[in-house]
Amino acid sequence: MRHLLSTKDLARDDAVRILDVAEEMAATADREVKKLPALRGKTIVNLFFEDSTRTRLSFESAAKRLSADVITFSAKGSSVSKGESLKDTAQTLVAMGADAIVVRHHASGAAHRLAHAGWIDAAIINAGDGTHEHPTQALLDAFTLRRRLHGEDARGRALDGARVVIVGDILHSRVARSNVWLLATLGAEVHLVAPRTLQPAGIEAWPATVHELLDDALATGPDAVMMLRIQRERMHDAFFPTEREYARIWGLTAERFAALPADTIVMHPGPMNRGLEIASVAADSTRSTVLDQVTNGVSIRMAVLYLLVSGTDGGRA
Amino acid sequence: MSGILIRGASLVGGDRADIRIADGSIVAVGSASAESGDHVIDADGLVALPGLVDLHTHLREPGGEASETVLTGTRAAAAGGFTAVFAMANTTPVADTAGVVEQVEALGRQHGYATVRPIGAVTVGLAGQQLAELGAMASSRAQVRVFSDDGHCVADPLMMRRALEYVAAFDGVVAQHAQEPRLTEGAQMNEGPLSGELGLTGWPAAAEESIIARDVLLAEHTHSRLHVCHVSTAGSVDVVRWAKARGIQVTAEVTPHHLLLTDETARDYDARFKVNPPLRRAEDVAALRAAVADGTIDIVATDHAPHPDESKECAWSEAAFGMVGLESALSVVQHALVDTGMLDWASVARVLSTTPAHIGRLAGYDRPLSVGAPAHLTLVDPAASRTWSPGELRGRSRNTPYTGLTLPGRVVATVHGGVPTVLDGALVDAETVAAAAGTGR
Amino acid sequence: MSARPVLQTADIGRALRRIAHEILEARRGDGRLVFLGIPTRGAALAKRLHSIVEQIEPGVAEAGTLDVTMHRDDLGRSATRAPAPTRIPSGGIDDAVVVLVDDVLFSGRTVRAALDALADHGRPRAVRLAVLVDRGHRELPIRADFVGKNLPSATSERVFVRLTEVDGVDEVAISS
Ligand SMILES: [Zn+2]
């Protein structure tokens, strides 16, 4: 593992290792000194072509907790948007001594390109590329789910048999893609729910069961329901008629939440549209992992940075 | 009177013959002997093809000289065995007036590497709102016969009907870039399982097929000529086949890259493989090859689309569409169609020379390699092969999708109107070609 | 490569019992004892020392593990190391006498990392070091307070410690 670009190409052992290392990282949060010296002298560049305060802060905090030097480069409004190529930007950053580049880009495949075009030699971590993948989000989701399912015994375990329902705009969701591949790799049973307009081409070949109606999927008695953020603009591109109709058929309403098995957890990558894809009573319940997901994000990102940057072999520990 | 004597070339029919060229024309075919001062080319093992004609080239001049110029583009054409290219209208300014098309045509004549026949825009500024002055372009010194908004689809059905009807008066043809705009908003690659996985907006086959279906019905209704650019799907082939069976005056082209490459090339997000229409499934490639072989698709045209490196060295969705193709076209056709036994060399001459010239109403290509015909020809060594490297390209841009691929065939010599533009596999220098072209030799 | 056995099961048991007694004597009655083993084999040894001490003076000691991976000074020079769990006993380490336990003392760099790692968890009253084998060749000013066996060795030689909990057998061997 030289880079972390997608969960599609992540082996099960590597995925479990990342989750296990994240457990150790999470443990440091309770210590008097939360900072670890593991990446002292290393430079991590956060290269954000797309605004995302949450993800950027999470990576920054992860890198700092590992004592790395952090350079955050918000490419929006800089020379990059004025025509400097991705290649030039990357080469500039490597010339500044970057050991790893965390890249967030509005274009699918940007991280893959940085890693494989032969322009630069640095570890690349995909922090979300277009509508392709967001692997650290899926890893933190899996971490959150594993902790809820296995508690203190989580180390070394995968998610075999766990039933996860993912609902919403699968077509445009990098979170959904990364979760499908990762959850399936970890042995979970994945159910996807979306109207046909929001299902990507070829979804029938994905390692998941596809439903058009949410109630059909909830009837399977899931361990977790993951609600994806719906962008209101989609309505104008005729993906669905109105917010009201979307909420009624694909929203986790108070009624649907009440009818869920008592131990089903509710996940959301955030930020939430309350009243659209998720009712407040579900979002704020003790079964919601929304805040855990934020906390766990830092542990996962520490684990990924540590595994990719600390050794000489790119994480084959 | 000095000329060129080509010794022992294989004609596309299979016979071996000497060919002698003088004063811009073919003066002998069969057995000929050198006269004093003749340049003699030993063509043992080489196939003599009529000069190739590309009905779909983007020369970029005026306005896009960083990517290509008439000079660099026609040098690339000559290197690929072409003696005539039809230059697409999407320049800056757009070739939508007699002034622009005359300028482009004159540049071609001045440089001498190939005949440049400008294509006129169908609508002003390619904007699809108002017909360009098609008649003025047709009657200009550039003698425009092909009209296209290529790069854009003439999407408005009424505009398309009017254009088809209007160009009939000049024996013109509308070359349609068939892409339903609403169905392809933000489209990045073929819509299919891979676009779904990669998170790239899909370009559905139906967006091409529905426009072709509409246009052949309009061509039937208006009794006009329609040419379909770069057909890319099996469904489009079916529509064209149906239209031809009904007697509709439709011709169709396919690009070399659509005959060889599939959408799987997008997997690495390498934008050299980003092209419009997109590379499709293996089934489509197979259907397109079969359609060339059975004549449903009339011609191969390159859609040579040069772009500077920076337009490709970026994220896929930010990269430009298009790939260069003039220099590789013949090799790809040999690899995909000749070496697979689907096409013989006589048919290669048909799809890459005679028929495109006929569709574009370009004179001088109807009696190839016969005594008295203009001397446009190319000599190919089909036994040679080479591994493609962008550094060897003679055009200004390097965006070839074939880097690292070994393809058969090599253009050994090209003669345009009696003027050698390629000899011994190398371009003749620009001064020599321009001087010779100026004297008509 | 031939391995020469140095300690067998009984020898290891004897060494640990002696160390346990020495630790209790040295403690001079001042405060809690916390055994922190350095994973992987140090953790097993800490557990054994703790249970011996429990038999002699019940309730005087606790045991846990202290992972030092993140504090190593050779992280960037070797293959990536996966960290192991750190388990600090519920009483914490503040004002306790911490006994760091490892299998082999060699360069001293692991112990240096352990002292740094320990500081992240609190401020012990004192820190001692117990090792099963001291093979010499120190690269840092560090020495063990309690040693099972001093084993002079050449740098080219390798010392193997195998413990039942990890390897299924108790044995210390040296090979050239
Ligand atoms: Zn086109």
Q: What this model shows, in words?
A:
The complex is a heterotrimer of chains A (317), B (441) and C (176). Chain A has 317 residues and is α/β, with parallel strands linked by helices. In chain A, 37% of the residues lie in helices and 14% in strands. A 5-stranded parallel beta sheet of chain A has the order 7-6-5-8-9. In chain A, helix 5 (135-150) packs across helix 11. The radius of gyration of chain A is 19 Å and the shape is globular. The model of chain A has no long low-confidence stretch (mean pLDDT 92). Chain B is an alpha/beta fold and 441 residues long. Chain B folds into 2 domains: 4-47 and 373-436, Roll (Urease, subunit C, domain 1), CATH 2.30.40; 51-359, TIM Barrel, CATH 3.20.20. Chain B is globular. In chain B, the strands form 4 sheets. In chain B, strands 1, 2, 3, 4, 5, 16, 17, 18 and 19 form a 9-stranded mixed beta sheet that branches. A 5-stranded parallel beta sheet of chain B has the order 9-10-13-14-15. Chain C has a 5-stranded parallel beta sheet with strand order 3-2-4-5-6, with helices on both faces. In chain C, strand 2 (33-37), helix 2 and strand 3 form a beta-alpha-beta unit. Chain C starts with a strand and ends with a strand. Classes of the chains: A alpha/beta (317), B alpha/beta (441), C alpha/beta (176). Chains in contact: A-B, A-C. At the A-C interface, helix 1 of A face loops of C. The structure holds zinc ion (ZN).
**CATH homologous superfamily placement of the largest domain in chain B:** Metal-dependent hydrolases
- Each distinct ligand: zinc ion
What assembly state would you assign to the polypeptide chains in this entry?
A: heterotrimer
Number of domains of chain C: 1
Largest β-sheet summary of chain B: 9 strands, mixed
- Strand residue percentage of chain C: 25-35%
Beginning-to-end CA distance, first to last residue of chain C? 6 Å
As laid out across the biggest beta sheet of chain C, the strand order is: 3-2-4-5-6
What is the number of helices of chain C? 4
Give the overall form of chain C.
globular
Radius of gyration of chain B: 21 Å
Unreliable stretches covering 5 or more consecutive residues of chain B: none
Which percent band covers the strand fraction of chain B? 15-25%
* Relative helix content of chain B: 25-40%
Estimated structural class of chain B: alpha/beta
**What order do the helices and strands of chain C follow?**
EHEHEEHEEEHE
